Amino acid sequence: MSKPIFNPDDVFQFESTLGEEERLIMESAREYAQTHLEPRALEGNQEGVFHEEIPKELGELGLLGATLPEEYGGVGASHTAYGLIARELERVDSGYRSFASVQSSLVMHPINIFGTEELKQKYLPRLATAELIGCFGLTEPNSGSDPGSMTTNIKADGDYYILNGAKMWITNSPIADVAVVWAKDEEGIIRGVIVDMDTPGCSAPKIEGKLSLRASITGELVFEDARIHKSQILPNVKGLKGPLSCLTKARYGIAWGAIGAGLDCYDSALRYSLEREQFGKPIGGFQLTQKKLAEMITEITKAQLLAWRLGTLFDQGKATPAQVSMAKRNNVHMALEIAREARQIHGGMGITNEYPCMRHMMNLETVLTYEGTHDIHLLITGMDITGLNAFK
Fold it and tell me: What pLDDT digit, counting tens, does each position of 219-258 carry?
């Protein structure tokens, strides 16, 4: 297929605002994703396979934990640069952006913010290179949107904690070397604990039969009297604010990643509309097709500017969880609607694996739900503007 006739990322000259490092990171992520990642991601989606060599490739390029200090394996990048990495990975497939989000925002971030210096030195450099793969254990079989109702627990036993419970829908868990697990202590307070998954009593069964995020590996976490040394506790946080702050960082990346999925669908629909002829001319010359394309690029541009501003606020230490919820909800919904409209422009060909629309559509159905459902983020915005809690 031919290239897009113009750069749809930059209708409002967004890229002209990037610093040199941000541009280099964006270009590095894009070149890798388009040239090296895409063929295996497409195969992975078709076959339901996660290519386990890819994480180390991401690590070699500095695309994992990019905002962390260099002493812990990061590159000290801006939040905009982190967002651009997410955008370029999800332009190829949501599954590999999900891997990177978990590794960077849900595993490395809490260790960096809440861990001791010993824990940082022990884990972060090896997570940055993907020598270690991480996962994040919060959701449970009976505890999704209400994480405070979790039943996974830790009980003191001398210098150890005894960990029992189960987590569900955990990205990376079947291949994870380490898990950041959230559990209630004997006082009912939620604590974060770093679990080496080779500890006796720990297992991670794979979830089979997924119709979405097929290139991502998903499983459970099961703990049966697992003995975890007390030095593995994250000492600098207690309560739900711990896991929720991690989700805020990850949701920010999702807001950027969804733009990539939307862009890929839009690019494909634009190219197809200029090549596919009906009634004696390209279908891109018909008003209804142009309406679809014009609305797509308008919504993508709005979402890009929203994510860009949010990244600036993160770098200034001013971003709020409510702002992140608004961006995650808006941008994922935007991308899903674009995937659906783009599929229509492709007609019957849109359901084949020759084009990306149906694959992105299936993936985005999951992205719409995980790390805070579409409706939950709506209620977070509602509470933010009214001051009234609709959750209770």
Answer: 999 999 999 999 999 999 999 999 999 999 999 999 999 9
The tens digit of pLDDT for each residue in 318-333 reads 999 999 999 999 999 9
**Locate tokens 């270690």: which residue?**
132
CA 214, 216, 219: angle at the middle one, nearest 5?
100
Is the pTM higher than 0.85? The answer reads yes
Strands 277-278 and 178-184 turn out to be unpaired
Q: Which entry of 90, 140, 299, 371 is annotated as an active-site residue? A: 371
Q: Within 13 Å of residue 363, how many CA atoms lie on the same side as its CB?
A: 37
Verify whether residue 371 is a known catalytic residue: yes
Contact call for residues 31 and 322 (beta carbons, < 8 A): no
CA quadruple 235, 237, 240, 243: dihedral sign: negative
- What SS3 state is found at 386? helix
**Residue that the structure tokens 């896991």 belong to:** 243
